[in-house]
């Protein structure tokens, strides 16, 4: 079978979940390819590859792009009399299984899809109906009828198929960073994400947190370095790389230092980055970390976001990183429910005082069915119809508790905050003047350019190709990714009176 994976966009970080599924498909003898909605011509890709199965990997933030793409794909299949199986996995399918009926898909996968995908491909190859598979809502099934499972043995799967990524974007072969997942599952219950819901969904399926063996991880990294050079740095993409110092971590870091010995980046949490942890990570080669702040106001961080991180813990964690030579990237959110503009300005100042390698700032966007979105609706600060219709943009806050002037200031904090957070006190009065001006494209471009610069100087040093023939197109692709508007308002569903094939350039070419 020919399997076409569909992703909204690509950047420097490999789409590991999709790559793992591709390796599973190839092990079963199938052929795979990747379609990127942000930049590929859908019709050309369909016509040249002629897939038998379409596999969407979808996040809620990118849903509108997938809705429109599915219209194009379905009409292409009808026009060419091509029998096409269409399935969807990823966060959106997991938390919004109604998408199966909305798009009339053959099946959707909730939760982990590795074993699921093997079983779907077996049934599809044998031309059998897709049903009675754990974690799959298939033909004539609903979520209440299916069995759920978590995968306990992560080592049973082949290494991620990086070729599908590099074949789709050859320029990223020269990007000298490679990403890996050492574990699955996350125990925290922050109100702005779906982890708490996910953990409840799979609570009876075994341990939520599961790890690859040390040997598997070391061998996968060695294999990747050999097969996909050049590699100058390793990125561990786990939501939290280490929760505590245990036997697995000690053994892994000792072997990593001895057998890999490359600088690495990982994601941590302030309450897990103790001084002992920072010292251990640094000794093994950790040169940078991501450690989100989210809010500089303790009451908001802990009562609204449920981060359970007091100010002293946050401050100490960044001090430990600095003490042991680890450059930290921390992100923060503006425009939170029950918040104020003063909270946002306090967050900027708090973040700046932590003296990170890179401070970045975003604006709260309400994902449906999260506790924080429900809280905003309960407060009357968010119109639930906007969520249902997906009719908000990804820039300005959709909350009605902020004035337009305040929303403009929040936007300017997002654009300019990273720059001024690294500048001396002398420049701070200028920052507070500039953010009162109307937001503009210059702010956005200079802000995004600075974030890129700091990422590749402080957080991922040495990974950018120095050849100008590679560097310039990489920068342009990066800026397109950062400036891309994901949440275009489009027609939803399979309307018969539309012709998306003729109009696809309007949607995807910016």
**If you consult CATH, what is the topology of the largest domain?**
TIM Barrel
Number of beta-strand segments: 14
Strand % is 5-15%
Could you name the CATH class of the largest domain?
Alpha Beta
Gyration radius (Cα, Å) is: 23 Å
Distance between the termini: 33 Å
Structure overview:
- This protein has 510 residues and is an alpha/beta fold.
- It has two domains: 2-152 and 490-508, Rossmann fold, CATH 3.40.50; 176-212 and 235-245 and 263-464, Alpha-Beta Barrel (TIM Barrel), CATH 3.20.20.
- Helices cover 44% and strands 12% of the residues.
- It contains 21 helices and 14 strands.
- The chain has helices at 16-27, 42-49, 63-79, 91-95, 99-103, 114-125, 163-168, 195-201, 214-227, 247-259, 275-284, 298-304, 311-323, 341-353, 371-378, 384-389, 404-421, 428-434, 441-459, 468-483, 500-508, and strands at residues 2-7, 31-36, 53-57, 85-89, 107-109, 136-137, 177-180, 183-184, 210-211, 233-236, 264-267, 286-290, 327-334, 358-363.
- The strands form three sheets. Strands 2-1-3-4-5-6 form a six-stranded mixed sheet, sandwiched between helices.
- Helix 1 crosses helix 6 (114-125) and helix 19 (441-459) crosses helix 20.
- The two termini are 33 Å apart.
Could you give the topology of this structure?
Elements: E1 2-7, H1 16-27, E2 31-36, H2 42-49, E3 53-57, H3 63-79, E4 85-89, H4 91-95, H5 99-103, E5 107-109, H6 114-125, E6 136-137, H7 163-168, E7 177-180, E8 183-184, H8 195-201, E9 210-211, H9 214-227, E10 233-236, H10 247-259, E11 264-267, H11 275-284, E12 286-290, H12 298-304, H13 311-323, E13 327-334, H14 341-353, E14 358-363, H15 371-378, H16 384-389, H17 404-421, H18 428-434, H19 441-459, H20 468-483, H21 500-508
Parallel strand pairs: 1-2, 1-3, 3-4, 4-5, 7-10, 10-11, 11-12, 12-13, 13-14
Antiparallel strand pairs: 5-6, 8-9
């Amino acid at each position: 079978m020919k399997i076409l994976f569909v992703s909204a966009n690509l950047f420097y970080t490999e789409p590991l979940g999709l790559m793992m599924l591709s390796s599973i498909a190839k092990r079963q003898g199938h052929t795979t390819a990747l379609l990127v909605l942000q930049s590929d011509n859908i019709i050309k890709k369909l016509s040249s590859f002629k897939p038998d199965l379409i596999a969407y990997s979808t996040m809620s933030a990118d849903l509108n792009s997938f809705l429109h793409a599915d219209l194009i794909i379905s009409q292409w299949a009808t026009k060419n009399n091509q029998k096409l199986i269409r399935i969807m996995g990823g966060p959106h399918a997991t938390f919004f299984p109604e998408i199966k009926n909305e798009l009339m898909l053959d099946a959707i996968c909730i939760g982990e899809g590795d074993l699921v995908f093997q079983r779907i491909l077996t049934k599809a190859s044998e031309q059998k109906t897709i049903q009675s598979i754990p974690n799959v809502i298939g033909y004539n099934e609903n979520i209440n009828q299916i069995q759920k499972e978590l995968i306990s043995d992560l080592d049973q799967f082949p290494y991620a198929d990086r070729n599908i990524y590099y074949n789709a974007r050859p320029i990223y072969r020269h990007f000298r960073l490679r990403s890996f997942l050492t574990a699955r599952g996350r125990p925290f219950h922050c109100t702005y994400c779906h982890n708490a819901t996910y953990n409840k969904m799979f609570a009876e399926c075994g341990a939520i947190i599961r790890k690859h063996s040390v040997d598997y991880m070391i061998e996968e990294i060695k294999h990747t370095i050999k097969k996909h050079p050049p590699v100058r740095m390793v990125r561990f993409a786990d939501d939290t790389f280490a929760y505590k110092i245990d036997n697995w971590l000690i053994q892994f870091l000792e072997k990593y230092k001895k057998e890999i010995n490359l600088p690495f980046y990982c994601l941590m949490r302030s309450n897990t980055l103790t001084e002992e942890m920072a010292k251990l990570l640094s000794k093994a080669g950790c040169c940078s970390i991501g450690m989100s702040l989210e809010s500089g106001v303790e009451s908001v961080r802990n009562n609204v976001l449920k981060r359970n991180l007091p100010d002293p813990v946050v401050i100490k964690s960044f001090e430990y990183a600095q003490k042991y030579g680890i450059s930290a990237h921390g992100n923060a959110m503006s425009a939170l429910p029950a918040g104020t503009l003063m909270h946002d300005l306090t967050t900027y100042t708090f973040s700046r005082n932590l003296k990170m390698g890179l401070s970045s700032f975003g604006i709260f966007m309400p994902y449906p069915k999260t506790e924080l979105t429900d809280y905003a609706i309960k407060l009357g600060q968010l119109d639930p119809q906007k969520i249902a219709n997906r009719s908000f943009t990804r820039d300005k806050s959709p909350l009605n508790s902020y004035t337009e002037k305040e929303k403009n200031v929040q936007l300017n904090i997002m654009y300019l905050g990273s720059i001024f957070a690294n500048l001396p006190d002398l420049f701070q009065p200028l920052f507070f003047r500039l953010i009162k001006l109307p937001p503009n494209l210059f702010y956005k471009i200079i802000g995004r350019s600075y974030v890129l610069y700091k990422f590749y100087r402080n957080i991922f040093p040495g990974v950018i190709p120095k050849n100008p023939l590679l560097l310039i197109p990489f920068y342009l692709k990066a800026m397109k990714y950062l400036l891309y508007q994901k949440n275009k308002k489009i027609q939803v569903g399979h309307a018969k009176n539309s012709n998306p094939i003729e109009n696809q350039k309007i949607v995807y070419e910016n």
